[in-house]
Specification:
- The protein is 35% helix and 18% strand.
- The chain is an alpha/beta fold.
- The chain folds into two domains: 318 residues, 3-Layer(aba) Sandwich (Adenylosuccinate Synthetase, Chain A, domain 1), CATH 3.40.440; 103 residues, Adenylosuccinate Synthetase, subunit A, domain 2.
- A ten-stranded mixed β-sheet has the order 7-6-5-2-8-1-9-13-16-17, sandwiched between helices. The chain has a three-stranded mixed β-sheet with strand order 12-14-15. Strands 3-4 form a two-stranded antiparallel ribbon.
- β3 and β4 form a beta hairpin.
- The longest helix is centred in the middle third of the chain and has 19 residues.
């Protein structure tokens, strides 16, 4: 085990480990968080972006599997709790359902081990249904939304401010009236996109039982531990934590492939802000994950897509909202860009390498041919955009859709492949994953 890996996994002082995906999501974050919880003995897993659309799979040695959506991916480990920070958009209905699933898989008292910020926004069924209506109405021009209402809820937070719905509101006498007002708002917007293909969703939205959701939301509030940020941040300051990111850098709202991205910060930014606000004085380790090959769920460019790439099956598949899960060869240009955006990492992890075991030869995209100089340097590097320049990002996304990559091809031998990637990324690969379970190898 290398020195940096030893530092990442063991220290007498409280540590904060931030786990981030550097691709389009699906980089194996759940499995690595489970690994870190077991290796470090961390008591808390902090979610710091996204919402209920996360899908972090964990497989235990005794054969249990779970797709972690709102709970932290280390919850199979006794004594571990999840913290949903103010940056997470919470769906109480889906969280209660996930708690039942976990209890059925032997996780003791999952709701009692759930801590939520009073300032976290709430996803209503209205935004969820409106999101699905809008995506269906886009027909062949879908954004690739998961259909969970995350983007619309974040928009409410930005536009409505205190009139949006937050965890703290779930215990107030005004909850019912606030739900009614948000339902009315969603209905007005739904009228603008209603059509034959989304008529069933529209009818469901019009007939939502607001009283039912008022009771469900109150039930949720009293089943979990709700804390003001001062108390929540004190837990982080005194204990450290594993910070579990959602989605991936290439889906970030400020740096990703707009409009085929998430309305969330997928960099280290939110986690670092929480640590700063808490006054945490321990070590902070930034960990970035990439698959050994490229993947993408949902619409948008995947430069190295290879429909014939024959890899062993994984948990990802097609779904009604995002369509087919696409595979491709490793894209070193996109990986270098992701590393540049986040300012590098303390530990770079390559995952899902066991799924490549049957390949005799592999390709690696080393550069892009005839790349648009508005978005790429003369040497072929993807330029860093000004934060939040959506017009720039949209134009770059269009350019990426027509990119032809230059490949290097080589026989697949694991160590040679890793060395080739290290040279192309100009960054050491500190750990690899050769199993869907929590055991990982350090280099």
């Amino acid at each position: 085990m290398s020195n940096i890996s030893e530092q990442v996994l063991s220290s007498a002082e409280p540590q904060a480990h931030i786990v981030l995906g550097l691709g389009y999501g699906d980089e194996g974050k759940g499995s690595f968080v489970d690994h870190l919880v077991r290796k470090t003995g961390a008591r808390f897993i902090v979610r710091f972006n996204g919402g209920a659309q996360a899908a972090h799979h964990v497989v235990t040695e005794d054969g249990r599997e779970h797709c972690f959506r709102q709970f932290g991916s280390g919850m199979f480990v006794a004594g571990t709790s999840t913290i949903l920070s103010r940056y997470v958009l919470i769906d109480p209905q889906y969280l209660l359902e996930e708690a039942e699933e976990l209890a059925g898989k032997g996780v003791c008292y999952p709701l009692e081990r759930m801590i939520v910020s009073a300032d976290a926004p709430i996803i209503t069924p209205f935004n969820r249904l409106l999101n699905q209506m809008m995506e269906v109405a886009r027909s062949g021009n879908r954004h690739g939304s998961c259909g969970f209402g995350v983007g619309l809820t974040q928009r409410d937070v930005e536009e409505l401010g205190s009139k949006a719905l937050y965890v703290r509101d779930l215990a107030t006498a005004e909850l019912g009236s606030k739900l009614f007002q948000l339902w009315q708002k969603s209905l007005r917007e739904a009228e603008q996109v209603a059509c034959q293909v989304n008529s069933a969703l529209y009818e469901t939205l019009k007939n939502v039982d607001i009283d039912y959701y008022e009771q469900l939301f109150r039930h949720f509030y009293h089943r979990v531990r709700v804390l003001e940020d001062e108390a929540l941040l004190a837990l982080i300051r005194e204990n450290g934590a594993i910070f579990e990111g959602a989605q991936g850098l290439m889906l970030d709202q400020n740096y990703g492939t707009f409009p085929h991205c998430t309305r969330s910060n997928c960099t280290f930014e939110n986690a670092l802000d929480l640590l700063k606000d808490s006054g945490f004085a321990g070590e902070i380790r930034r960990i970035g994950l990439l698959r050994g090959y490229a993947t993408r769920h949902g619409a948008g460019p995947l430069v190295t897509v290879c429909p014939d790439l024959d890899l062993s099956s994984c948990h990802n598949g097609s779904n009604p909202w995002q369509g087919q899960f696409r595979l491709g060869w490793f894209d070193a240009v996109a990986a270098r860009y992701a590393l540049a955006v986040v300012g590098g990492v303390d530990l770079l992890v390559l995952t899902n390498l066991d799924r490549m075991a049957t390949l005799k030869e592999v390709k690696i995209a080393t550069a892009y041919k005839c790349a648009d100089p508005r978005f790429f340097s003369e040497s072929g590097e993807m330029l860093l955009p000004d934060k939040g320049r959506l017009d720039y990002l949209a134009a770059r996304t269009e350019a990426l859709s027509g990119i032809v990559p230059s490949y290097m091809q080589m026989p697949f031998q694991l160590e040679s492949y890793l060395k080739a990637l290290e040279q192309l990324l100009k960054h050491p690969i500190g750990a690899i994953s050769l199993s869907p379970m929590h055991d990982k190898s350090y280099r």
